Amino acid sequence: MADAQLVDLLKSGGIDAWNQWRQSHSSTQVDLSRAELSGAMLGEMDLHNVNLKDANLSQADLNHCNLHKADLTRADLSGANLANANLNRSNLTYANFFSADCSGADLTGSDLTQTNFLLANLNGTNFRDTNITEEQRKSARRRVLF
């Protein structure tokens, strides 16, 4: 379950405050599972290796966000802005990217089992070494890198 103090810091502390906290607590396992972060402004934040299982990130701004090795299992990212985000080696199993902007995002090595990309913008998205299926590709908008 998400730590309420960390959710508050993430939502209201700003980029510098959050990233500074992450740097000074680098060994802390951050649990934001089931966090309510819909519409949150999280662009450029360091969320690497964070547990975001079942989190609601719908309509959130995650552009240029570092989500390297994050666990986004069953997370709702519908309508989110993930342009140029680093999702390298993340767990995106059953995540919902319906109508999300993933343009320029790096998903290299991520687990995309049952991930929903319906109507997502995948222009320039890097899917190298992922398990994306033909059906997932067809449901999304075009121009992706493999």
UniProtKB/TrEMBL annotation:
InterPro entries, alphabetized: 5peptide_repeat (IPR001646), Pentapeptide-BTB/POZ_domain (IPR051082)
Pfam families, A to Z: Pentapeptide (PF00805)
Give the superkingdom in one word: Bacteria
Q: What is this protein called?
A: Pentapeptide repeat-containing protein
**Organism (species):** Tengunoibacter tsumagoiensis
